[in-house]
Amino acid sequence: MQSLWFKISLFLILFLGFGAEPTYSQPYKFSLDRADSLFQKQEYTDALTIYEQILEQEQHYSPQMLLKMAYIKEGLRDYTSAMYYLHLFYVKQPSRSVLKKMEELAHAHRLTGYEYSDLHFFKTQFSKHYMRMLELMLIAAVVTVTIMFLSWRKGRRFSNTFKIGFTLYLLFILYYVNFLNLGDAGIIKNNHVAIMSAPSAGSAWLATASQGHKVPIRGEQDIWYEIRWKGEVAYIRKTNILELP
């Protein structure tokens, strides 16, 4: 049994080690330093170009970089991108001050969909460790099932209390997966966007939306997203939506 647990412990260490975040490459650091230098000199458009290249090509970003990108985009009156970068920052580093900034920006430009509850804030805070905790719980479940199977083959039987407890543990994992599901959402990225009642250009027109509004995405059908618009089920073309991670 000690040998089995040693192997399990070794597996956990290796698994968590491989799951750690990679260190940033030297070219990434050089580009980021150059962009930060341009930002300090108030050469915002040049800095933004490099920031966007880092985000698109390297898939790396720091919270400070996202705030700078949002600042530049707000100055350019590109509120869709400003909200997008603020959202990325919020997901990476949940902060009530960023929520307040998003709400103020939305209120100033009459944008909808940026109302956040305390429950949403709690879920976002907790989601920073969501995957790691889920991995640990699933590994523990697999290890327990493996040990139960090996013990069962040796003729050992488990009490009803243990079975009930393990069943409740599995149900908790299921609840955990669904509890922190914040749902999919996107930001309308174009102006004069038609909101339709069905996934068809010939369906009834509901409204015309401008860029910057945030909408929950409930599903998709061909070239359409099913969304919620002012409490109603509606549809919008995918090309008009900037999906949020």
**What is the typical, i.e. mean, pLDDT?**
82
Summing up helix and strand content along with how strands pair, one would put the structural category as: alpha+beta
Query: Can you identify the CATH superfamily of the largest domain?
Result: Tetratricopeptide repeat domain
The general outline is globular
> What is the CATH topology descriptor of the largest domain?
Serine Threonine Protein Phosphatase 5, Tetratricopeptide repeat
CATH architecture annotation of the largest domain: Alpha Horseshoe
> How far apart are the first and last residues' alpha carbons, in Å?
43 Å
Domains (count)? 3
Instruction: Write down the Rg.
Output: 24 Å
Transmembrane segments: 130-152, 164-183
InterPro entries: SH3-like_bac-type, TPR-like_helical_dom_sf
Domain SH3b: 183-245
Organism: Pontibacter qinzhouensis
Architecture overview:
The chain is α+β, with helices and mostly antiparallel strands and 245 residues long. It folds into 3 domains: 26-117, Alpha Horseshoe (Serine Threonine Protein Phosphatase 5, Tetratricopeptide repeat), CATH 1.25.40; 129-179; 184-243, Roll (SH3 type barrels), CATH 2.30.30. It has helices at residues 2-18, 26-40, 44-58, 63-75, 79-92, 96-108, 118-127, 130-153, 160-179, and strands at residues 184-188, 193-196, 205-209, 214-221, 224-229, 232-237, 241-243. Strands 6-5-4-1-7 form a 5-stranded antiparallel beta sheet. A two-stranded antiparallel ribbon has the order 2-3. Helix 3 (44-58) crosses helix 4 (63-75) and helix 8 (130-153) packs antiparallel against helix 9. Residues 1-22 have low confidence and may be disordered.
